[in-house]
Amino acid sequence: MKRKAKSRAWMQAHVADPYVQRAVASGYRSRAAYKLIEIDDRDRLLHRGQTVVDLGAAPGSWSQVIAERVRPGGRVIAVDILPMSPIAGVTAIEGDFREAAVLGSAMQALGGEKADLVVSDMAPNLTGVGASDQARAAHLCELALEFAQANLKPRGAFLVKAFQGAGYPEFLAAMRRCFVSVASRKPKASRGGSAEMYLLGKGLKPQAH
To answer: Closest Cα to residue 54, out of 8, 139, 137, 115?
Structure first.
């Protein structure tokens, strides 16, 4: 009964969430769209004609925002292990980002070119075991950074969701080795009490390729 009551309370809070309501009204697939919108409005990451790779894209709200803001002439490549309904202007690749074949498909979609921006809103399926969940989240961040290093244009940018806790200082240090500037962002749309933090690296260093 306690589990059902907790689930019911979460659903009630979710439906009442103003960002959920705004997402529904605006046609975005999740409230996460407003995290990217707030960051982009502040940092001006997205521009017409850009090539952007969206890692951990499903259900697709970030890809929706990106596609809107890089038109006309932009390209969006979305990667996720979960299926994603089509979005105009977005090439979706379904598969596990940790598998070489899926990474190969993403690079093939780039057509031999480099991306202007790589974004990652990836998070692991939580087990409830804090140390394990944190380690898995940190590993996804590291994989996303490796992809960005290999596939960004010189001076390109990288936005990644990380979680404060074990491994976070080390990952932040790795970001600073790869980019000219690194800033942290905590959008208002992030849920209260969440340990998530978005790290924004600008200016991929030549030696980071």
So the answer is: 115
78 in a domain, yes or no?
Answer: yes
The structural domain count of the chain equals 1
CATH number of the domain that 63 lies in? 3.40.50.150
Which residue in the list 35, 114, 161, 188 is annotated as catalytic? 161
Position 132 in a domain: yes
What are the residues facing 163 on neighbouring strands? 196
Please check whether residue 4 lies inside any domain of the structure.
no
Q: Minimal CA–CA distance to 57: which of 97, 17, 14, 25?
A: 97
Q: Is residue 1 part of a domain?
A: no
Q: Is 186 annotated in the active site? A: no
Over the stretch 100-123, which tens digit does the pLDDT of each residue have?
A: 999 899 989 999 999 999 999 998
Mean pLDDT of 53-58: 97
Range of the domain at 102: 31-208
- Rounded to whole angstroms, the Cα distance separating 48 from 70 reads 4
DSSP output for 50-82: -EEEEET-TT-HHHHHHHHHHTTT-EEEEEESS
